[in-house]
Amino acid sequence: MTITKSIAKVRSIIKKQKLKNKIIGFVPTMGALHQGHLSLIKKARKDAGFLVVSIFVNPLQFGPKEDYRIYPRNFKKDRALLEKERVDLIFYPYPKNMYTAGFSTYVEETSLSKSLCGKSRPGHFRGVATVVTKLFNIVQPDIAYFGRKDYQQAQVIKRLTQDLNIPAQIRILPIIRQKSGLALSSRNAYLSQKEEKKALVLYQSLRLARNLVKQGQRKPHFIKTKIAKLINSRKNLKIDYIELVDPKTLKPVKKIDKKTLLALAIFVGKIRLIDNTII
Amino acid sequence: MTITKSIAKVRSIIKKQKLKNKIIGFVPTMGALHQGHLSLIKKARKDAGFLVVSIFVNPLQFGPKEDYRIYPRNFKKDRALLEKERVDLIFYPYPKNMYTAGFSTYVEETSLSKSLCGKSRPGHFRGVATVVTKLFNIVQPDIAYFGRKDYQQAQVIKRLTQDLNIPAQIRILPIIRQKSGLALSSRNAYLSQKEEKKALVLYQSLRLARNLVKQGQRKPHFIKTKIAKLINSRKNLKIDYIELVDPKTLKPVKKIDKKTLLALAIFVGKIRLIDNTII
Fold this sequence. Notes:
2 copies of one chain form a homodimer.
Chain A: E1 2-4, H1 7-19, E2 24-29, H2 35-47, E3 50-55, H3 75-84, E4 89-91, H4 95-98, E5 105-109, H5 117-120, H6 124-139, E6 143-147, H7 151-163, E7 169-173, H8 193-198, H9 200-214, H10 220-232, E8 237-245, E9 261-268, E10 271-278
Parallel strand pairs in A: 1-4, 2-3, 2-6, 3-4, 6-7
Antiparallel strand pairs in A: 8-9, 9-10
Helix pairs in contact in A: 6-7, 9-10
C-alpha cells in the first residue's frame, strides 16, 4: 500500500496503472472510517484492478459555523483499516495543496443541490462538487463509490459527473446501520452514550413513515406532522428538515403514489445527523 | 482524419491513443476557422502524437441578446482546412448531446472572469469554463492551445485547469493580425468592407497607447482618455471598455510601472470586437 500526499505522485502511479489497462476504483472519504466506508471499499476491491482511497477533510464544504476544525481525524486507525482491505493507494493531501494561492474556480450543481441539506448548508454542495471534481481529475477513476446515507450528495455527484462528462461510473451503495438502526456516520463519534440513544429517533422516524404508508397514508403533510410530533416530544432534539421528495429531482411530492424519498436532518444536542429511506 | 459527433467514439479513440502513450494535442474552436486558429493547430501538430480539434458553437457562452444563432458556421470549409493541417480527429458535437436533459452543473471562475468582458457579458465565462471543462474531460488532452486574442479567456482557462487539477498543459499563442493590423476573429466575417476599415481603430488604439507609454506617460487615465477621444471622433463606433490592467490579476492598475495589459472592446456598428496588447 502506497501512502502519499503528493498530487504528482498519484498522477504518475495512476498513469502506469492505466497503461497496464487496470480498472481504477476510487473511494473518496474524509477519514474517520467506519463500516459504511468499509462496505464501499470492499465492493471497490472486488471491482477494481487498482484501488485508491482518499482521506481529505475538505474545508470548502464546511460552513463558517460548522465542525471543520473538530471533525474526527485518526489517520493511524484509518491506515490500519485500509491496509487490511488491501487498498493500493491512500491519497492524503494537505488542504494548502488542494487549494493553492489564488484558487477561484468552483463547480456548482444548481438544481438537485438546492433542496434538503442544500437549504440548511449554503455552499456545502458547491464545496462537495468542487472537491469531487478535483479528486476525480487527480485519481481518474473508472468507478467511484459513494454511500446512500448522503443520498443528496450522491445524486449531485452523479449529475455533475454526467454534466461535466467526467469519465467515471458512479456506484451508490446502501446505508450501513448499527443493530439499533442508527445509520453509521463519522459524526456519530461526537455523540455521548445518552445522545446516541436519542439519535435513534431518526431511524424511528423512518419506520414510522414506512408504517403509515403501509397503512395507506398518502399525504406528505400528515406523515411529516407525525414525525415532527414524535421528535418534538423528546428533549434536546431539533428538527432541521423533514421532507418527502421525488428521489430523482429531490423536489417535494404532493402525494405518495410512487417511490418517494423521506429525508431527515435532526440536531441531537449540537450534532446534526441525517438519514433517509425510499418508501 | 476521423470526424465524429459521438462523445463515446472520441473516448474510445483517445483511450487507444493513450495506451500507445501518444501525446494528445487539442485545439477547441467554434469553427469559422482563420489563420489565428491555424497557427494554434500548426503548433499543436508539431507537439502532439495525436491531434484533436473540436468545432462547437457553445450556446452556454452567448447571452440571450448575443449572436449565437448567426455565428458563422462553415463546416465544409473548416474540414478542408483541418484535413490540410493533418488533424487526426475532428469532434463536432450536437448541442443537445453536450447539454442533455436536466443539465445543471456549471464551472465558474470567480476572480479573473469578473472584469473586462466578464462585466459586459455576464455568464459568458461561466459558459466558457463549463464547456472547456467538458471538452477536456471528453478529449483528455495532454496539451491544449488557446489564442492570446482572447486574453482573459486564456487566463480563466489556465486558472480553472490549475484549480480543478485538470491534467492538461495550457499553451497560449500570439495574436495573428491582418497586414492592416486587424486581429483575426471569426466575427470579422460580419463586417462590411467599410466596417472593416473602421475596425482598424482597435489596432490604432493599441499603437497610440504604446507610443504614449514610450514617451513616458504612466497614467492609465490619461491613456484611456486619449484612446476614447480617438474612438469617439469617428462615426458608428461605441466603446464597451478600455482598460489597463495587471496581466495576471486582470485588475486595473493605478500606474504603468511594469508590464500592463491594455484590453479593448469596441462596437463597430453592431459588431463587438476585442483586442489587447501588453505594454
